[in-house]
Write a structure and sequence with these properties.
Elements (H helix, E strand, L loop, with lengths): L4 H16 L1 H9 L6 H15 L7 H15 L2 H13 L4 H15 L1 H18 L2
Helix pairs in contact: 1-2, 1-3, 4-5, 4-6, 5-7, 6-7
């Protein structure tokens, strides 16, 4: 049985806030315009309301996957954002370091090297 769009959106916003935090989500919502509204609604329903709520993986594992993909694709804004989410989801700095090491083998040393620099800056910013 599928949920209606309003329910998927509401549940997606709950999950988005759980992972990324209220401050980030409030800021993202505040930046939504008429131009970007449909895209933002789609992201909340599809990514957060559907994929992040699936039962097959826990939030820690989902965060590990997202970190790996953002490193491989060199999407550093998303990497920094989801690094905070990974900490919120219970990944330790040591576990994150291991993910970055693993990515060095499969996504390339330059990408992993950059990810370590990005992670250090996020950790310092967060005071962890």
């Amino acid at each position: 049985m599928s949920e209606d769009d309003a329910t998927r959106h509401a549940e997606g916003m709950k999950r988005r806030r759980q992972v990324l935090g209220d401050a980030y989500v409030d800021g993202a919502v505040a930046q939504t315009t008429g131009f970007s509204n449909d895209f933002q609604d789609w992201i909340v329903r599809m990514a957060w309301g559907d994929i992040w709520r699936r039962p097959g993986l826990d939030l820690r594992t989902r965060s590990a996957v997202v970190l790996s993909v953002t490193i491989a694709l060199r999407h550093w804004d998303e990497f920094r954002l989801h690094l905070r989410g990974a900490l919120n989801n219970g990944l330790s700095q040591q576990e994150i370091s291991e993910i970055l090491m693993q990515c060095g083998v499969y996504a390339g040393v330059p990408a992993a090297n950059h990810a370590f620099r990005e992670a250090r800056a996020v950790f310092e910013d967060m005071g962890v």
